[in-house]
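Practice record 12: protein with adenosine-5'-diphosphate.
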Amino acid sequence: MGCPIAPACGTVGGVAYDVLFEPVPIGPVVTRNRFFQVPHCNGMGYRDPSAEAAMRGVKAEGGWAVVCTEETEIGPSSDLTPSIELRLWDDRDVPAVARIADRIHEHGALAGIELVHNGMHAANLTSRIPPMGPSALPVVGSNHPVQARAMTLADIALLREMHRAAVRRALSAGYDLIYVYAAHGYGMLEHFLSPQHNHRLDEYGGSLRNRARLLREVLADTRELCAGKAAVACRLGVGGGAEETALSAAETREVVHELRDLPDLWDFVVGPWSADSNTSRFGPEGEQEEAVRGLKSLTSKPVVGVGRFTSPDAMVRQIRSGVLDFIGAARPSIADPFLPWKIRDGRLDEIRECIGCNICVSGDHTQSPIRCTQNPSMGEEWRRGWHPERLRPRGSDATVLVVGAGPAGLEAAMSLGRRGYQVTLIERSRVLGGRVRREAALPGLAAWTRVADYREAVLGKLDTVELYYESELTADDVLEHGFSHVAVATGARWRADGVGRQHPCGLAIDPAAEVLTPDDVMAGARPRGRHVVVYDDDHYYIGAVLAELLAREGFAVELVTPAASVSEWTANTMELTKIRRRVIEAGIIVHTNRSVVSVAGVVRTACVFTGSERDHAADSVVLVTARTPIDDLSHQLLARQSAWTHLRSVRAIGDAFAPSTIAAAVWAGREYAETLDAVAEPFRREITELAP
Ligand code: ADP
Ligand code: SF4
């Protein structure tokens, strides 16, 4: 069947993608295609509703047929502080939530809202209401020293009323699809389903039928209120092996069979959020298929599921083989809000494919607005007026030299070229991508190369950008060439002196000792002996990845970190436990809460609490501590300002300015291009209105 909304949809390279653009009914509403942005957190929520509204609106503009909110707390007893989600606690919350639906509708998509009572996942740190759940147990998902109380039958009746009130508010806010949420281990309804959390002896506990009673009742309540005005979705955590999942695969089938036609749509979620949003380091595209396959046959209602889908062929296969009716996406829609229309228009090489790094998730976990490695405009649509596909036309005839083609330089050159500036991009090596090419060669990080691939593909189509490989310019060369602006994006190098958080003045290192940096190892250098200490005072991924690489190559590796966990910051990307498991499986000996204090014939470490020292026999040490910006060219040019004739500005950007994540480097490139001819303004923010 052809697509009535998008006549351009069809075939690319001989493969039919039309099936992705078929309209599909969900209860009383009909979608324009099969692209479904499932609910996802974004760290903006009730604090930044206009920013969120613009972000969701851009997804709708990019072709998603359904665009959903994140978890929306239905009352103050479901208070997820410090997380920033949406709230429908009372009528005063409706305008913010309605603004999001309005922006989605403006671009022809259906608006979905995920209503949630977080049950024993909500420690209620703001409201200070004692948490509640099916049974008296410690709160889940955090170590807050708080327990939930067991709900009475009267509490259950009140909970249903709270959910009904939220449904009425969501309908008044204009939503077309209302979610009932029982997934990720986060929602009250899943806590009732879970034999681990539901120890009740009444009609809401015991048998699966009893444990599913509250879910059935809330679905029925929601259906009654929606009555032809909106569709009802059920988001259910499905079994299949993940240890934290409440239900086994068999129990999942039983629940779906029992409730089969009560919702208008099933949204199946595999395991806890960390499994559902697995990173590319730990799982491939379409990983959820095995757990979801076959569930569709238990219901006559359409089914949505996710899988970090970016390949249209994989999407078509999911539909044609009857696994899914909708291609669900959170991360692929974050990395490329225009994914649907790019597939429709056959612009597959312009898809900004998600790299599966979960920097987006870190926004939620750090209570800061969402960011994305691939899409620097994510979260900046309203705050800074950035758009994933459109940039303002250039403001002058200025010419720009971009030095260095890592993520910062590539993004700057591409965005400036799109604006219409004449750009010269020079790169010292033979490849584009800088650190992403080097890091993508490390275990599990292959997908990261997409950061360079996408930009390389777009640059290839821009006649405004001239690209020179194996080129290096001195300050004299630059001054002679007559560029108007210079962006120095020459990156950073890892330090070999141990300077870092733990040792701001560096380490005592015997000059005879072999010290390697991550740059050395990525360039192919290897320890001279078998025993290696990797010292990780960086706390993101590089330390553990290098330890894994060396262990796989047969080195005896000890990983030392002053933090309490290996790769501690990856709690924010939900990789912490997976990294630890992989490190253990690789046979790496881990020493947490210890700091390297000296490197000589042996590596000496000290306990960060007591200072007690210990020696580790090691032939070499790999120091993963801090990086030094490579910014000589910008300093040289700035020092010779009196000799500038055409030159008007010189700026170091990305890691050459302040070493950070790849996401930050990409963002810096975009920020440079956006502000080249503009007065830098602070970003917009919403200020709390004071009570009279
Ligand atoms: P960022 O993350 O800020 O983009 P990277 O280290 O990934 O930084 O990329 C820097 C890029 O700049 C690398 O590809 C490197 O080869 C290149 N480079 C470094 N110094 C020079 C230079 N003087 N001239 C041209 N290219 C350079
Ligand atoms: Fe994908 Fe990483 Fe962007 Fe998240 S931050 S959407 S995982 S590329």
